[in-house]
Design goal:
The complex is a heterodimer.
Chain A lengths: L3 H4 L5 H15 L15 H4 L15 H4 L10 E6 L2 E2 L12 E4 H6 L4 H7 L8 H9 L4 E5 L9 E7 L6 E3 L2 E6 L4 E10 L5 E11 L4 E8 L5 E11 L4 E8 L4 E10 L5 E10 L4 E10 L5 E10 L4 E10 L7 E10 L5 E10 L5 E9 L3 H9 L4 H17 L5 H15 L8
Helix pairs in contact in A: 2-7, 8-9, 9-10
Chain B lengths: L1 E10 L2 E11 L4 E5 L6 H9 L5 E9 L2 E2 L5 H6 L2 E4 L6 E5 H15 L7 H14 L4 H4 L2 E2 L5 H15 L3 E5 L7 H14 L5 E5 L4 H5 L4 E6 L2 E6 L2 H9 L2 H8 L1
Parallel strand pairs in B: 3-10, 3-11, 6-9, 9-10
Antiparallel strand pairs in B: 1-2, 1-4, 4-5, 7-8, 11-12
Helix pairs in contact in B: 3-6, 6-7
The chains are: A alpha/beta, B alpha/beta.
Chain lengths: 426, 250
């Protein structure tokens, strides 16, 4: 564990990294003994001998991977192949806003102030985030100065090519959106191989005063790839931030999504659709920390689990004593399609203020038989009827997606996954 | 068209239909009446193929073909339509899109290509005008937030779109005000022809003033205990079901 010496010893980030290494060494990988990891075991994915730094750079053609982009609209793109920046696939900018690389942000003096103020400030010191902080080499750096409405969405895409037997990727993203600005970001991790890949990703998002940030995570990787995705959102007053997580792929996916409301009249939205089968595992671990008064949070997670798949939802809502007039809503609805599928759902509300509205509800059920009969009696075959009901079930989450192309893409992914062609875009 | 012979059906080992015999010929309208719990809705669901019901004896023939083993969608493809007493809400799927799927799946099953988009639009326009349905209504999610009357009108709109051979209307009149009842009944009457048939399940005479039946059957404890012409419905409206129960028990 002496990488830190070769990396950036003269930079301010060096001390942060050294501290993070100590944190990780003290804690080690989380195990099922940790309450937050009770239902998710990392054993099966930690058994591989991962290579941390790929030996050579790999090239891929845009046409081969075009389908993994939202390509029917104009976007900025920050693309990585096996953890290395791919300039020919990317479209970055410094024109009024910075959409570029973490490695440059960490080394170039002109970004120093932002890095000092924001880098590793909202991310927690848990072991996996610390591991990322210690060793991450690359990721997206996005800084939107105040009063900018970024017209094009930004796509952050990580590809792995399989030229390494087993690859560990640790992308690190920093997104700072200043006063009154608005940005939309789409993130995707895609393995192009059957080799095992483990991604330990950390994203810090800062939504400053009255900023609007919409973040979409498309998780549809192949079933040899695993993802631990930790996202930390710090919101200042009157900011509006949303994270939608669409989990369809992967062997094991763990989403740690944490919102901190550091200002009044903040609005936070966390929504997700999970549709998995086989032996896939998706774990949503969410936290919204209401620190200031008059804020809202909306959580809505829908899960559909087939075969022997397992799902976990652990949603914590923490309302500080000062956070009066909080309005916190949480829903987690699940459908089990098979006797062998499992969902563990656990809402956790810790409320220290007395004038708040907090609601939560979780349900676990099967597809409604009467609804199935209704659709089938109109001539819609069983498989297509099931698909329509799953779309209907996920509709609350889809309806708040603001980019139509994402909606279409998600619909298409779901339809492909279910093996149906229902003949129209929802 | 439809021939039901000695049909017995049960749900969770509870016998509900206990020997139904019924023949419906093309061009006819049959009304099925009867007290609550007599098995009217069960009969409708069994004909349409609801899988929770088990047919323990007897048979259902549609155009001389036994349909007992057919899935609900196969029965739909062969021309059976059931208008639900309680239509189900399907958020995120518009009425129009749902109809496109239903029509094209039916066409596919019958070896026809998808209906061209312009033809589909024309059909939607014609049928929605016939049922006095606002076009905006058709882009709303299927049944979601619809009033009781809107749901029923939407059922008949779907029936008009699908042009079934055998339409079963399960308490289509419940939840309808007088105007909506007239519109729905007119819609059904316009769809009547020599080649199709309608079974109307109802508690009340008032729908039968608009959709005039050729035959009226009284269902009681899972059997048809009395059949007659349209005047039987008037008699039931006047006298209730007690006299029938007495006749049966005597």
């Amino acid at each position: 564990m002496a990488f830190e010496n070769q990396v950036d010893i003269d930079l301010p980030v060096h001390d942060v990294r050294s501290e993070a290494i100590k944190q990780f060494e003290t804690q080690g990988f989380p195990s099922k003994r940790d309450e937050a990891w009770k239902y998710t075991s990392l054993n099966s994915i930690l058994k591989h001998d991962y290579s941390v730094f790929p030996k050579r750079e790999n090239h891929i053609d845009y046409n081969d991977i075009k389908k993994y982009f939202i390509h029917d609209i104009d976007t900025y793109k920050i693309v990585f192949i096996d953890g290395k920046y791919s300039s020919h696939l990317s479209e970055t900018t410094h024109d009024g806003i910075d959409v570029c690389l973490m490695s440059s942000a960490l080394t170039k003096p002109k970004y120093r102030l932002i890095i000092e103020n924001y880098f590793n400030k909202v991310a927690t010191k848990d072991s996996l985030s610390s591991l990322n902080t210690a060793f991450s080499q690359e990721g997206a750096y996005i800084h939107i100065p105040k009063n900018k409405l970024v017209a094009k969405p930004i796509q952050i895409v990580h590809f792995s090519t399989g030229n390494e037997a087993a690859l560990l990727l640790q992308p690190r993203n920093l997104i700072v959106v200043d006063e009154n600005s608005h940005v939309q970001i789409i993130e995707r991790h895609q393995s192009l191989t059957e080799n095992p890949v483990l991604t330990n990703s950390v994203t810090e998002i800062y939504a400053n005063k009255r900023a609007i940030v919409d973040y979409y995570k498309i998780q549809n990787d192949n079933e040899n790839a695993s993802l631990i995705d930790s996202t930390f959102v710090n919101q200042k007053q009157e900011s509006v931030a949303s994270v939608h997580t669409f989990s369809f792929g992967g062997k094991l996916t763990r989403n740690n999504l944490n919102f901190y409301q550091n200002g009044e009249r903040v609005d936070s939205t966390m929504k997700g659709i999970t549709i998995i089968g086989n032996k896939q595992h998706v774990d949503h671990n969410t936290l919204v920390h209401h620190i200031e008064p008059n804020c809202e949070s909306h959580q809505d997670y829908k899960g559909i689990f087939g075969d022997s798949s397992t799902g976990v939802f652990n949603g914590k809502v923490l309302v500080d004593r000062e956070a009066q007039k909080t309005n916190a809503f949480q829903a987690n609805n699940n459908i089990l399609l098979s006797d062998k599928a499992t969902i563990n759902t656990k809402p956790q509300l810790e409320i220290f203020a007395d004038d708040v509205k907090c609601s939560h509800g979780c349900t676990i059920g099967q597809l409604d038989e009467t609804a199935m009969f209704y659709l089938r009696s109109r001539g819609v075959p069983e498989k297509e009827a099931k698909a329509l009901l799953m779309f209907a079930f996920s509709n609350n989450v889809m309806s708040s997606v603001k980019i139509p192309e994402i909606k279409q893409r998600i619909t298409k992914i779901i339809a492909t996954k279910l093996g149906v062609n229902i003949g129209f875009d929802l | 068209m439809l021939k039901i012979n000695n049909l017995h059906a049960s749900v969770e080992d509870k016998a509900i239909l206990r020997g139904i015999n019924l023949e419906v010929k093309a061009g006819e309208v049959h009304a099925i009446m009867g007290p609550n719990g007599s098995g009217k809705s069960t009969l409708a669901s069994v004909i349409a193929g609801k899988e929770e019901y088990e047919v323990t004896e007897g048979e259902i023939l549609l155009e001389n073909v036994n349909i007992d083993e057919m899935a609900p969608e196969e029965r739909a493809h062969k021309g059976i339509f059931l208008s639900f007493q309680y239509p189900v809400e399907i958020p995120g799927v518009s009425v129009t899109n749902f109809m496109k799927t239903a029509i094209n799946e039916t066409r596919k099953a019958n070896g026809l290509p998808d209906m061209p988009a312009n033809e589909m639009l024309k059909l939607i326009r014609e049928k929605s005008e016939m049922l006095e349905i606002d076009r905006k209504f058709l882009s709303r999610s299927l049944n979601e937030g619809f009033s009781g009357g809107e749901k029923k009108r939407n059922e008949i709109f779907q029936m008009a779109m699908l042009e079934p051979k055998l339409a079963i209307l399960d308490e289509t009149d419940s939840g309808l005000d007088i105007d909506a009842l007239r519109i729905v009944a007119n819609g059904v009457n316009k769809l009547r022809s020599r080649d199709n048939a309608v079974i109307v399940i109802t508690h009340y005479q008032r729908l039968l003033d608009h959709i005039v039946p050729d035959f009226v059957h009284v269902l009681f404890e899972g059997r048809i205990v009395k059949s007659g012409g349209k005047e039987l419905a008037h008699e039931l409206e006047e006298k209730g079901y007690d006299w029938i129960k007495e006749e049966v028990n005597a």
